[in-house]
Design brief:
This protein has 505 residues and is α/β, with parallel strands linked by helices. The chain has 20 helices and nine strands. The longest helix is centred in the last third of the chain and has 34 residues, at 328-361. It binds NADPH dihydro-nicotinamide-adenine-dinucleotide phosphate (NDP) and ribulose-5-phosphate. Belongs to the 6-phosphogluconate dehydrogenase family.
């Protein structure tokens, strides 16, 4: 691939422009904002790549600058922006042209555009790009999906610019047809959000509960990141830098100056977390670690609302207390284990959802390949977890593919760390610490691993009482998620006789 048109030269697009140019590609760039185009050109100059990069201010000249078949790369906001760009390119598209959409696009938008472009013989590759702008510059993790011919055509180039894992393998693999690539990236981001919330909760417990200073927490995270289950975990690693960084002007920690608001879901600049939660509900897969973290983040965005409610309560309902602890080292080890299994829960939930979507869409995803591309470059990279899943998915049965929590090695990891998570959750509740993902993971583990004896038998009775929804009988469970065959006449509707014993219908 000798020439690419980059559309959207913001944080990611400008960095990938440099990465691609550095790898010998002649880059034509377009962005509606003149100042963004200028910034991108300035960066190219700075890196000695100006001869490889040319900016265009309209689509006609952008397209005229390319030889056939033309290759476009989108790095733009999701939704209507991508549609508008496809419409603008429409007059210039020819059979054999390829669009690589490297934005975080909704997988159904990707499939809709693929359907529209297929009649023109244009390939539309929906591709997740992970790793943030630093990886976009140095090599990111890519998950391309779409028509075989189009994905195959771009794979050799992607292999050269992708991040490399610890064994030197490029972090890019063909995912599947349609919107598979963007779906995989959406799941990646869902997992990422569960993990980020867990880590911020644990940071909060250490800081407010144990009274540890930022530098002390940085040292702990550094140790965690060096060996054991959290080794070479990207989020823990950057946590160390975040905890050490001081504002050169006032010498305060930068972190201490940051407002507690995450707004990118609420302002709709990003959508992947919302879509993951929606997909979990649509496909009936419990993903509480992911959704609970996401929900705290949603609430965090509304700072005015939080103030208003707090005022209505005559002051804040809770203030995290200090945690009295005789064995501080022991508690820090429990926190490490709790972090690890909450991360692992986020992975398992995301992968279980992905398996269900794969089943629905018949993408034929290869889960070993997905784990492989998440081993380098990306935000959720975590060496122990990657190694664990590479083993799990090697020759995995159909049952384990759809239910990785039932793998014995995975189950042993959870069983081992469960007591630590339980201790941390109960101490944190006592101390009013914020622990949505830790608590949700604990409950998820409890109810997902109980063979029989959930309190939902009471719920099933209530449903049958008021709605004639029927139930299964203990000892006669078919094991299938289908309506039970039994009913009891709990209370008759006016004048209508009801069975006075359990009846099979
Ligand atoms: N930041 C990150 O860590 C990652 C982001 N992504 C995804 O990559 C994409 C780009 O993200 P990021 O670089 O952070 O975002 P930015 O906002 O920095 O960049 C988006 C660029 O697209 C431009 N743009 C807006 N509307 C149009 C249009 N109609 N036609 C062409 N260009 C347009 C924007 O211009 P203007 O500024 O004038 O609006 C901006 O330059 C998003 O989909 C994001 O979800 C993926 C992985 C990581
Ligand atoms: O895609 C990304 C990383 O993988 C981007 O950083 C994105 O901004 C994360 O957004 P969100 O937390 O809303 O998923």
């Amino acid at each position: 691939m000798h020439q690419i048109a980059m559309i959207g030269t913001g944080s990611m697009g400008s960095m990938m422009t440099l990465l691609f140019a550095e790898n010998g590609v002649k880059m034509s760039i377009y962005d509606p904002s003149e100042s963004n185009r200028k910034k991108a050109m300035d960066k190219a100059k700075q890196d000695g790549l100006e001869s490889k990069v040319t900016a265009y201010s309209d689509y006609e000249s952008l397209c005229n600058s390319l030889s056939s078949p033309k290759v476009f790369f989108f790095s733009v906001p999701h939704g209507s922006v991508g549609d508008a760009i496809v419409d603008s390119l429409w007059p210039y598209l020819e059979k054999g042209d390829i669009i690589i959409d490297g934005s975080n696009e909704h997988w159904e938008n990707t499939q809709r555009r693929q359907g529209k472009l297929v009649v023109r013989g244009v390939g539309y590759v929906g591709m997740g790009v992970s790793g943030g702008y630093q990886s976009a510059r140095g090599g990111a993790s890519f998950s391309p999906g779409g028509e075989d011919w189009a994905v195959e055509a771009v794979m050799p180039f992607l292999r050269t610019v992708a991040a490399k894992d610890v064994e030197g393998n490029p972090c890019v693999q063909k995912m599947g047809a349609g919107g598979a690539g963007h779906y995989v990236k959406m799941i990646h981001n869902g997992i990422e959000q569960g993990m980020m919330s867990a880590l911020c909760e644990v940071w909060g417990i250490m800081n407010s509960g144990l009274g540890l200073r930022y530098e002390e927490i940085a040292d702990i995270f550094e140790k965690w990141n060096t060996k054991g289950e959290l080794r070479e975990n990207f989020l823990v690693g950057i946590g160390v830098d975040i905890l050490k960084q001081k504002d050169p002007e006032n010498k305060k920690h930068v972190l201490s100056e940051i407002q507690d608001k995450v707004v990118q879901d609420v302002d709709e600049s990003e959508g992947t977390g919302v879509w993951t939660s929606e997909e979990g509900m649509r496909l009936h897969i419990p993903i509480p670690t992911i959704t609970s973290g996401h929900q705290m983040r949603l609430a965090s965005a509304y700072s005015t609302k939080r103030k208003r409610v707090s005022k209505a309560m005559g002051g804040r309902l809770v203030t995290p207390q200090s945690i009295e602890c005789e064995d501080r080292e022991g508690m820090i080890e429990q926190l490490r284990q709790a972090t690890y299994i909450t991360f692992l829960a986020s992975f398992i939930q995301g992968l279980t959802l992905l398996a269900r979507a794969d089943d629905e869409n018949r993408w034929g995803l290869d889960f070993s390949k997905i784990i492989a591309i998440w081993r380098g470059g990306c935000i959720i990279r975590s060496e122990h977890i990657s190694e664990l899943f590479l083993k799990v998915y090697k020759n995995a049965s159909k049952e384990i593919l759809s239910d990785p929590l039932a793998n014995e090695t995975v189950a042993a990891e959870f069983k081992n760390a469960f007591p630590a998570l339980k201790k941390i959750v109960s101490r944190s509740i006592e101390a009013d610490a914020y622990i949505p993902t830790l608590a949700a993971t604990l409950e998820w583990l409890k109810y997902s691993t109980t063979e029989e004896g959930l309190p939902t038998e009471f719920e099933e009775a209530e449903l049958d009482f008021f709605g004639w929804h029927m139930f299964d009988l203990k000892g006669h469970d078919s094991g299938k998620a289908v309506t039970g065959r039994y009913h009891f006449g709990w209370r008759s509707a006016k004048g209508i006789p009801e069975p006075s014993k359990i009846v099979r219908l």
